[in-house]
Hints:
heterodimer; A: globular; B: alpha/beta; six-stranded mixed sheet; two-stranded antiparallel ribbon; 28 helices
Amino acid sequence: MEKKLSLLKPQETGKISKIFLEEPKYLKGFSLGIIKNNQIKCMYQSPFQSPICYKINGCMFSLRKEDADDILVEV
Amino acid sequence: MKRVCLIGNPNVGKSSLFNLLTKKNQHTGNWTGKTVENEYAHFWANNELWEIVDLPGTYSLIGESKEECIASNFVLENHYDVAFIVADATNLERSMNLILEVLDATKNCIVILNLMDEAKKEQIEIDTEQLSTLLKVPVIETSMKEETGMNELFTLLNNFSSSPITISHSPKITHYLDWILPKMKEANTALAFRYLREPNLILHELEEKEKTILKFYQHYITQTEILESYHEFGKSILRETYSRKKYQEKKEDKFWNHVFGNRFLSFFTLFLLLFVLLFLTIYLSNIPSEFLFQIFQKLEPFLQNLFFFLPSSVKNTFIYGGYRTLYWVVSVMLPPMMIFFPLFSLLEDYGLLPRIAFQLDYPFSKCGSCGKQSLTMCMGLGCNAVGVTGARIMESKKMRLLAILTNVFMPCNGRFPAMISMIGMFFVKNHSFLGSIYSAFILVCIILFGIFLTFFVTYILSKCIYKKENPMFLLEMPSFRRPKIWQTIKNAWKEKAFHVLKRAMIVSFPAGIFIYLIANIMINGSSIFEILITIFNFWGPFFGVDGVILLAFLLGLPANEIVIPILLLGYTRGGMLVEYSSVASIKAILLQNHWTISTAISFLILSLCHFPCATTLLTIKKETNSLFYTVLAFLIPTFLGLFLCFLFHLWV
């Protein structure tokens, strides 16, 4: 099932299937591993729901909710 | 002299390698963006002097962000003999793109796989020899923590062989490269990609028709495609050389993930850490502070005797003006700094700072900034000038400006010893354990108030500077790394504490002499100081303070540390009347001059909220390159502080 990355619950894992981020954002994401077919895991949310902490290839980073909305994952 | 440069992803240990090679103590931290400027130093290897350049961390040479431009300019300009590409052995997937991009620019590289100790713990298998064969450059394994691999690095430096690698790109890009490379003086793929971004570099060498073709390629090939092309090639290399077993989370990380995943626990933890940090600073610095006071006081008669040959007016100027101000600054500032800086560095090296930025991103985004501003605020807690420079990590120009203009609301180390002693005199009865807890609590409240003001001013300013933008907040959360405790403490003392202290001492001695002189040179029967005070006394009552306080803040412009000594010199008319040897006697002086608790509160408001010191202002001028914003940075906190005092005075 395909869904928005932002809807992934903590401890859930998915495979990135589509990325709708535009160029500067896409490039930044790319360098941190937001690449099609990579496994991504949701770690935890901040107290205000955004940003959210994710993990790819054993490294953690945070992403705001509105940016996570533009990424689709296969669960 | 030969030169090497250090290039690599953020937070892979470039600065640690830099320190290890040069025996320097440049401060490192476990977070992205710690190094914002190229650092230069020298080291000896095999009887040869080398210059080494530490570049800011970057993920790619292709992008357009500031650090990417600095790094790519440096790499392409080719002013070095060897490039060290520092890669993260625990996450080679991420470092691979940069390695390939640099290899496309120059063949004189050594790839350094750092963090090998952690990679071994995580059971990652790396076939270094195969990697070296495929990349056609030497590859060595190192660990900065265990200091291994350095000997191999030194041996390699003088005689290493490498040959240019041919990276196979996607058909589209190959097409472009086949067209442009023959036209370049020196065929260089990295430079060819650069022309897509900055065609002006080569346009003058091209004919009309070729210019049109280049323009076409500019639209045809996007940066994304170049990156993806590198990524594909990197993947094929990694498949042969790099394998990781299923990733196991460290216990420590698991624990912290739990803490920061919890809504209440996370804020409580941060609050508690700030509290404990300040409590330890206050509690532990009481005793050495008194001790230093007494030593300096005992030295005073000795100095009197030593300079017996000087006329008494000159001697008094030096001793009552310069020496007393100096010793006040040293005894009040040195102990808290010796405790605060190392503790803070430990937290920083452990990897806590990005978590703070993560927690605070949402409120900051509502104010038109982003969570990284809290990192600049943390730096400001040490020194505002450092915080202003640190604002370079902000994503956009506007946010950077917001961070620069509001940094002064974080009390720096020059100010909070004064705050601590003020709290100690007026709000706490004794310096016992409980008393320290109480003062730490008050100080935390003051800092929270400073944070509130930061939010408030950021919000107002972001409405004024109209520019709609929404850059990505992509912040790395490094895994927690146990810092080398003793080394961190030593570095913090050497680099930070003594640096700040030196500055304070350089300013305080002449400032003390200056104040003493204006307090004792008479014009028509009253001293210059008294005339100034009369002027300021007119304005003081509006804000619930007296003229001496306002004058002290104004004269404290060169360095905030000297505000209290000026205050005391002002009240004692040159320090002749009373010896201010301890906190109790200082309080007596203040009480004689009609200080009450509300005066103390006004003083605290003003010291939290007034113009930044001269060094910070100069840094702001340098960073923003605009006189307007420098003046703004001066006026905003000043007016806000005076306004708050005015309100407080009305209320009282």
